[in-house]
Amino acid sequence: xxxxxxxxxxxxxxxxxxxxxxxxxxxxxxxxxxxxxxxxxxxxxxxxxxxxxxxxxxxxxxxxxxxxxxxxxxxxxxxxxxxxxxxxxxxxxxxxxxxxxxxxxxxxxxxxxxxxxxxxxxxxxxxxxxxxxxxxxxxxxxxxxxxxxxxxxxxxxxxxxxxxxxxxxxxxxxxxxxxxxxxxxxxxxxxxxxxxxxxxxxxxxxxxxxxxxxxxxxxxxxxxxxxxxxxxxxxxxxxxxxxxxxxxxxxxxxxxxxxxxxxxxxxxxxxxxxxxxxxxxxxxxxxxxxxxxxxxxxxxxxxxxxxxxxxxxxxxxxxxxxxxxxxxxxxxxxxxxxxxxxxxxxxxxxxxxxxxxxxxxxxxxxxxxxx
Length: 371
Ligand SMILES: C[S@@+](CC[C@H](N)C(=O)[O-])C[C@H]1O[C@@H](n2cnc3c(N)ncnc32)[C@H](O)[C@@H]1O
Description:
By secondary structure, this protein is of the alpha/beta class. It is built from 13 helices and eight strands.
């Protein structure tokens, strides 16, 4: 039975009960230990082998084809899998990835009454717009995928948008492409600052999820009109409620980034954060073509997604590839082997650049201009 909680007397109270909070914090501590202490030993072990040192040297030389990189990464995966500390480090990562999702559901369920009450409470209007399309079909590439080992599918669980417990585990960094000790909030702002122009007036975030990245865009472009689009209706509902609560005026639209509903040449800047690795390369090509269509001449796209294998050392490439099968990210491998710079040039973008802002190739930025 759901617990009774008096949140009206303390609006700042946490939306996770102490027992769940403690459990999630332990998982965060395990993730941190695995990503720092264990991982640095695993890396040393890998490089101390003759084959590991050779693979690292070859990879650092660069200029390899995607096929050569794939072959090298596969050889490095086999080698790493033979090393005990690496196996323990990956065991902890997998355990945390699974357990975190279950504990998050428990933490949400034990606060069901609170969430229902919050959802029923009118919020101060910021004047934004929420455009839902519940009949919109999910794309074929979602078939059978429970991204990030989520125990419930997209939009299949009424409290699916209440995921604050996961943030408690991930706040230390040290998962997927995000290095340990990362400040993800500050990095989001840093990436938004990669737009070349400072006076963009209409900015669209494709695959916005909720509004965390839109809030970062608002910090850098406080006067810009903001639009967010995503397939996931629940994330948008949740994000819209938060936007209205914090006074951020946004338009949130449930749609596929391949068909944004925006007119030709009507957008000054398109931003994406952690979107492209969730879709096959061919779908990303369609997304880039749609972005080209809606941008005005001189408009910009800035992308932040996991770094390509070619931009990180061979051991980091092993870690990135692992997410494909172990954190249910089925397009991670093919997108890390892709080259967004070449894809954007092929569509007609100019001034295309790809570069890292921090260590371990993260955050990795790709930016371009429509001529
Ligand atoms: C990892 S989340 C990132 C969310 C957000 N950008 C952020 O910074 O927190 C990826 C998002 O991309 C969305 N997505 C995946 N494929 C999409 C598509 N074809 N069109 C629109 N959104 C998509 C998912 O629903 C999900 O919300």
